[in-house]
Specification:
Order of helices and strands: EHEEEEEHEHHEHE
Number of strands: 9
Strand content: 15-25%
Number of domains: 1
Distance between the termini: 35 Å
Number of helices: 5
Largest sheet: 6 strands, parallel
CATH architecture: 3-Layer(aba) Sandwich
CATH class: Alpha Beta
Radius of gyration: 17 Å
Helix content: 25-40%
Strand order of the largest sheet: 3-2-7-8-1-9
CATH topology: Rossmann fold
Shape: globular
Length: about 200
């Protein structure tokens, strides 16, 4: 019997939080879980990175290079490193310090880790923000579709904005998180414990 494919997508908050809920549920049932974040970095101090220290049955990787900004307000050069600045929400700024090649290499590494994890046949593998990586051209959609086809009994959870028709068709469950209201739109930053 094939593992299930769950997708949490949409413009609203809650995609990674839903994936975390599924992962923790699996971990608490003594199942082996793999987690790969395609954008987030462990250096951000996000709470979920601490899970790997709490559960021996969890492999967790944060391969991302942070925000990937393609439409930016301005570019700066600082210590021979390009910084791309963009406005979000109510004028807050985000910065992208990685080159396009660094973003692509991080995504490639994430896919390689995912393949290795699936080969080990854990109960669950979470590919956090893989849908974004496909939507933004960092990962070819066919690579994800091949992973889905080759998963065997491994359950997959995929998160991110911009789900395609093919990924939707390949999934068993697709839930859309729709933003109705968000404090970020009023200039409030993320809250430790609630958002990260």
């Amino acid at each position: 019997m094939s593992g299930l494919v769950y997708v949490f997508t949409g413009e609203g908050k809650g995609k990674t939080s839903a994936a975390l809920g599924v992962a923790v549920r699996s971990l608490l049932n003594n199942e082996k879980v793999g987690w790969i974040s395609f954008y987030k970095q462990e250096t951000w101090g996000i709470a979920e990175a601490k899970l790997k220290n709490k559960f021996a049955n969890l492999e967790m990787y944060f391969v991302g290079k942070g925000f990937r900004i393609t439409k930016y307000d301005k570019k700066l050069m600082k210590a021979e490193k390009e910084l791309k600045l963009a406005s979000v929400g109510n004028g807050a700024k985000v910065v992208d310090t990685a080159s396009e090649d660094e973003h692509k290499e991080a995504a490639r590494m994430g896919i390689e880790i995912a393949k290795q994890m699936i080969d080990k046949k854990p109960f669950l593998v979470v590919l956090d923000e893989i849908i974004n990586a496909i939507d933004e051209g960092l990962v070819d959609e066919q690579i994800l579709l091949d992973l889905i086809a080759q998963r065997g009994e491994v359950n997959l959870v995929l998160t991110g904005r911009g789900i395609s028709k093919k990924v939707k068709q390949a999934s068993d469950l697709a839930t859309e998180c729709k933003k109705i209201k968000h404090p970020f739109d009023l200039g409030r930053m993320a809250v430790k414990g609630l958002d990260y």
